[in-house]
Amino acid sequence: MILPEISWLEGVSWYVAAGAALISFTYIRKRLADAAKKTEEPSGQWLGSPALTRRERLSRSLEPFGLFAVGVAIWPIFVWVMVYEKLFTVPLPPPPQFKVTREHLRDVLSIESIETDTRVTDPLGAVPDLPFGHLNPAWERLKTGMQPGDQISTFIAPWEEFGITWERGGYAVVRSGEVASFWVMRESRC
Amino acid sequence: MTAQTRERLTYKGESAGMCTAPLNDFFTFVGKWPRFARTDTGLWRHYIGTWEILGDRLYLIGLQATMMDGTAATLATIFPDFPDRVFAHWYTGELRLPRGKLIKYVHMGFRSTYEEDFFLDVADGVLTGTRLVRNGSDG
């Protein structure tokens, strides 16, 4: 095969044009997909950014241009990654789910004692006079799932997410010694 | 992930940007996230909360957001019986208020470093202490 002779300037021009076309095509396809989603879920207005510094605002407004320039410069890498992913990538295992087991259970309590001890008061009256205050709907939901013979126990369980270890606490519905459902209502970083 | 727009907190009469979002915990604990309209990448949580420490308590006193149907969301949208003030009794942790000059900009979350960080420690919505941390010039 005989390749046509072209100058380095023509070569660079073709390279940049191909990159610009690829990036533009990807961008337009993404915008069309977003627009289709918006017809289902109408989007709102931008809220403004009162707490951003001038440098942060400048950085944010220049971001699309920078990404476009980088994309045009290294577009063959994108193509290689896309092809590689199509050919060699295996699906990732599902992310770990937070679970509460028997080992995490602490104290079995009656509903009456829980509802008495968890009322929240406020001198300005900015909380409802209900068990768990503003979190009451979640407590009611946990109770709704209870069956005759079920017990409620507190729990404390570790949880790791994005490399950070947390301690989660709350209440669990215990059925025949096993955790039937639970409600996380406290979380603190270890 | 882009640098995120801060919450607002008034403490001892001074309003400042806050790099903590206690309302996220509320949505997590209640198990329901309101259908806020998407904004841009600088506001992944899709709302800005306005907070106040009054006495020794943390209160949510304002909310700026737009719902999916285009209507403006306020505090009453989330807390219909408490349209003006909500005691944040669900929150335990620290509130971070960066101060001074920007030392190191990080284009992600609230990770930029400023000269100082003023922390307010909160337990069950009640202020338990404050700390001032001076950050090194190398970030």
List keywords for this structure.
heterodimer, A: 190 residues, alpha+beta, four-stranded antiparallel β-sheet, 5 helices, 4 strands, 21% strand, elongated, B: 139 residues, mainly beta, six-stranded mixed β-sheet, three-stranded antiparallel β-sheet, 9% helix, globular
State the secondary-structure class of chain A: alpha+beta
The secondary-structure class of chain B comes to mainly beta
Provide the number of structural domains of chain B: 1
Query: For the largest interface in this structure, which chains are involved and how many residues does each contribute?
Result: A-B, 37 and 49 residues
How helix-rich are the residues of chain A, as a percent range?
Answer: 40-55%
Strand content of chain A: 15-25%
**β-sheet strand percentage of chain B:** over 45%
Shape of chain A: elongated
The main β sheet of chain B shows up as: 6 strands, mixed
Radius of gyration of chain B, in Å, reads 15 Å
Provide a concise account of the structure shown.
Chain A is of the alpha+beta class and 190 residues long. Chain A has helices at residues 8-40, 54-73, 75-88, 111-117, 136-144; strands spanning 105-109, 151-161, 164-175, 178-189.
How would you characterize the overall build of this protein?
- The complex is a heterodimer of chains A (190) and B (139).
- Chain A is of the alpha+beta class.
- Chain A folds into 2 domains: 8-88, no CATH class; 102-189, no CATH class.
- Chain A has 5 helices and 4 strands.
- Chain A has a 4-stranded antiparallel sheet with strand order 1-2-3-4.
- In chain A, helix 1 crosses helix 2.
- Mean pLDDT of chain A is 85; it is low at 40-50.
- With 139 residues, chain B is mostly beta strands.
- Chain B has one domain.
- Chain B is built from 2 helices and 9 strands.
- Chain B has helices at residues 22-30, 75-78, and strands spanning 7-11, 14-18, 48-54, 57-66, 72-73, 86-87, 93-104, 113-123, 126-134.
- In chain B, a hairpin with a 2-residue loop joins strand 1 and strand 2.
- The longest helix of chain B has 9 residues, at 22-30.
- The model of chain B has no long low-confidence stretch (mean pLDDT 92).
